[in-house]
Design brief:
The protein has a two-stranded parallel ribbon with strand order 1-2. The termini are far apart. By secondary structure, it is α+β, with helices and mostly antiparallel strands. It has one domain. The chain has helices at 2-6, 27-30, 33-38, 49-54, and strands at residues 19-21, 44-46. Helices cover 38% and strands 11% of the residues.
């Protein structure tokens, strides 16, 4: 159920987002970032360097 839900478009205009704050590298968080880009997100992704290395 959650996998299907996570693949649904978000109820907002993705292209209007300025940035995403990624707090940690769990796949249920970082794994959605490619989906955001496919849906038009072009903003910055802010995260800690240790999180960035894991993603």
């Amino acid at each position: 159920w959650l996998r299907k839900r996570n693949r649904q478009p978000l109820p907002l205009d993705i292209a209007s987002l300025d940035a995403v704050l990624l707090t940690h590298a769990h796949l249920d968080h970082s794994g959605y970032i490619p989906v955001l880009y496919k849906q038009g997100f072009r903003g910055a992704v802010y995260t800690h360097h240790a999180t960035r290395e894991l993603c």
